[in-house]
Amino acid sequence: MNNKIRHDGIIDSIEKECVHVRILQTSACAACKVAGYCNAAEAKEKIVDVYRTDVAHLKVGDPVVVSTSGDVAARALLWAFGLPFILMVLVLVLVLWQTGDEGVAALSGLLALIPYYGLLFLLRHRMRRQMAFMLE
Predict the structure, then answer these.
(1) Up-side HSE of residue 33: CA atoms within 13 Å toward CB?
(2) Cα–Cα distance, 83 to 117 (Å, whole number)
(3) How many CB atoms lie within 10 A of CB 95?
């Protein structure tokens, strides 16, 4: 997955080491010509933080292109959804095997996600260096 993921955006604000870019994230339906007549079209505004960039030539309101690699996107999906799913299923099966109680197993599987996402929150600064957006 070496494809680049790109979004056009507008600089929302600039801090010391971070540029906040407002992008319009659209579903495939939103790009359709008849999307205005259909209820399925969806578009959301998102703020993307871009770190480690030269902010000297940038100003609020400038149009920019934000990009990242497909590898970064795949890694983010793995950390956010893939590994938690595996953890939840693993805990569910182990607790069900030990106790035989489906309710306790289901609750244990869900509760196992709390420390996992807590750990991700604590490691967010380290992960930010590995999974970064860039301005083109």
Answers:
(1) 0
(2) 11
(3) 20
Predicted model pTM: 0.67
Say how many residues make up the chain. 136
Q: Sign (positive/negative) of CA torsion 6, 11, 12, 17?
A: positive
Which among 107, 60, 69, 67 has a CA at the least distance from the CA of 88? 107
Residue-wise pLDDT tens digits, 19-40: 888 887 766 665 565 555 565 5
For residue 117, which amino acid is it? Y
Region for 79 from its dihedrals, namely left if φ exceeds 0, alpha if ψ lies in -120 to 50, beta otherwise: alpha
Q: Is 63 exposed, middle or buried (0-12, 13-18, 19+ CB in 10 A)?
A: exposed
